[in-house]
Amino acid sequence: MIDRKHQRTFSQPRAGALSWRAALLAGAVVLPSWFIAIYAQPGLGRVAAALLFVLGVVICGALGGLGAALAAATAAFLLYNFYLVEPVLSFEISTGRDVIPLLLFSLCAVVAGVLAARLKDRARAADDSYRQLSSLLEISRSLQSAVRVPDIASALDDHLSGSFDTLATLFLVRDGTFDAAVNGPSDDIGLQLVRKAADSEDSPREEGPYTVYRLDSAAGFEGAILFGHGLSRPPDKAFMSALANLIALAVERAALSESNAERRAQARTEELKTALISSVSHDFRTPLTAISASASSLIEFRDRLDPAAAERLLRGIVSECDRLNRYTSNLLEMSRLEAGQSLARRQTLGVADTMSAIVQRVRPRASHRRIVRRMSDEDLLVNVDAALFDLVLVNVLDNAIIYSDDGTSIHLDVGRDGDFCVICVSDEGQGIPPDDLERVFTRFYRVARPRPSPRGSGLGLAIAKGFTEAAGGRIGAASPGPGGRGTVITIMLPLATESSPA
Q1: Where does the signal sequence lie (predicted)?
Q2: Cα–Cα distance between 101 and 479 in angstroms, integer?
């Protein structure tokens, strides 16, 4: 399958175009030389007139190359013989002594023109070599930063189409199919040439305006690069061969990078699966053990337990069930966020009412910690998923409770900053090391603590980050907080507008 976007048709250079340019240049230079020589001969002599013609031939060779020099030398010989050698206005030669000067003049004109033309050609070749080497260096730099095949094809098109009027089409073998990476030729000649390169190890192959090079790597045949040349002179074969080698290396590097990325993704998936199983087994085992112990005590000692003790055990069972429910909710909501389903259930919520309900629900778990709620604006509205918003705030408050001591305060500050609702949860607990401030938003990441502390699931802040980003907001952590202690988690959510869905 070939993508025919950005196609360009190439034609063969027109035969004879160079000779016409050479003839025009020769006429433009030799005719003025002849005109000056006619008027200079009476005063300066025939030798000076001949040197004027030789000068014109040299100028043609220097400007137009070998073709222009030979055309100018021929024209100068005819004009010199016709107008300056006796008898004038005739190509006849009156005496034998005039033959040798005429031949010497012709020889000098040709030699001078050829030397000037060769100098011109060498200078042009040097310029072409410098331009091609510079382009190779630029392309090499671009290919070093190209990590995907489309980037490689784009870099080639940018450099070659502008500098050499050449289109390079990259063909790769993928799953047994020979595909053009970005663009392809608009005729069958180039496509047939590419297929021939795939079937044979002969490289390069040329046909019409196209040249194809095989791309071979350590793993075998990777594809081919097809060069299509415009009306200007194509780059030389050494340049295209070196370029093909650079492309082969870039393609091989892109394939290895893609393979490594897949392997890393697989490894990360396995790590996450292992971490998930470990986290779930640990986080579920603890409350299940507490529930089992409390329920067993109620069954075994129900006749000997006083009502207060029985109520404590029952409340413990309810608390651990709530804990299990939060863990399950975290896992389910994390899956929803990763599947991109977090925006499906948006509604407009009053931040003040939501905060009051959440604080009332979390307060029993705070034990002897104070939860201080401060609202600078009671009328703030946000358009979010209600269940996720509730879960995120509960997770952040639970973290503040878990990692702070009894007798400390947890502050919940809500305000407005431009078009954003800003929610800050600060505690006076252990804080987070500077190196871990970004990592705490990674799934299953837990900060290493110098002293034993309760272990969370490692999902709370990851869910908070996914939720806020999906809602168009942002979240950040700072430590230490006010007073040089604890942690501050700041959540910024866009305020609801009139066009927001209810």
Answers
A1: none
A2: 99
CATH topology of domain 344-446+456-494: Heat Shock Protein 90 (3.30.565)
Instruction: Write the pLDDT tens digit of every residue in 409-449.
Output: 999 999 998 889 999 999 988 888 888 888 888 776 677 66
- And the tokens for 404? 């702070």
Q: How far apart are CA 375 and CA 481, in angstroms?
A: 19
Give the 3-state secondary structure of 167-178: EEEEEEEECCEE
CA distance 463 to 444: 11
Which residue is it, tokens 């030789």? 54
As beta bridge partners, residue 164 has none
H/E stretch holding 425 reads strand 420-426
Q: Which fold has domain 146-259?
A: Beta-Lactamase (3.30.450)
pLDDT digit string (tens) for 78-90?
Answer: 666 565 656 656 5
Burial class (CB in 10 A: 0-12, 13-18, 19+), 57: buried
For the chain, count helices (H), then strands (E): 11, 12
Specify the long-range contacts of residues 205-211, CB closer than 8 Å, at least 24 apart. Answer: 208/10, 208/12, 209/10, 209/11, 209/12, 210/10, 210/185, 211/237, 211/240
Domain 264-335, classified CATH 1.10.287.130, yes or no: yes
The residues near 446 (Cβ < 8 Å, ≥ 6 apart) are 455, 456, 458
Most confident of the ranges 18-27, 315-324, 392-401:
392-401
Contact yes or no for 399/467 (Cβ under 8 A):
no
Q: Where in the chain is the domain with CATH 3.30.565.10?
A: 344-446+456-494
Yes or no: say if 320 and 284 are a contact pair by the CB < 8 Å rule.
Answer: no
